[in-house]
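TL;DR need structure tokens for one chain.
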Amino acid sequence: MDQMWPLEGQRVSIPDVLLDEDTGKSFTNCRMCHLDLQSPPVPYMVEKVIRHNKSLNLREELFGYAICLECAEEMKGQISKESMEVIQEFISKNVDLQKRMEAIFFQRDNHVEEVLSNCMLSGQSVEAAEEYQMAALCDGDKMIVGMWPYVIDSSVIGQLTELLSPETLGNMDDFYGQNFGLPPEWADLFKERPVFWI
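>> reply
TL;DR here they are.
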């Protein structure tokens, strides 16, 4: 798990956009197993989907949650080996990993702001996106800066979804239905936008 979820890196305050929208503070419990994430602090993932109403210049959080790394590992296990290879190949072709790692290594002051402003895969500004997904690796009230955080434009997620095997899509549908008890509107969101913790 350590290799998949590297906990080394600069620790910074969690940006407001990745806090629990209901409380304005760090998430307190795992959405799946309800583990206390803060007392004592444990590493966890935050995932959000944001809709951008450009005509009104408003951003609306469609959903946001945190899950502990054990549950995140279980969720990632719903992606077949074939689909994971396709995702990794897509990422390697579209992400300038050297540029990301240089920014992390030199710890530029505006690095976090930069990565939360542009899609990791397309480079497109979130200002131009209708919807986008954000993911971050956190520990207590801090965010760990490394390969996370990242933003992915919904149009790119659509491209990735088309590459997934029917097995993976079926597994993910079943998994979210069984573990999240999602209301219908959330279930539709998950079907259209699989979560990729890459």
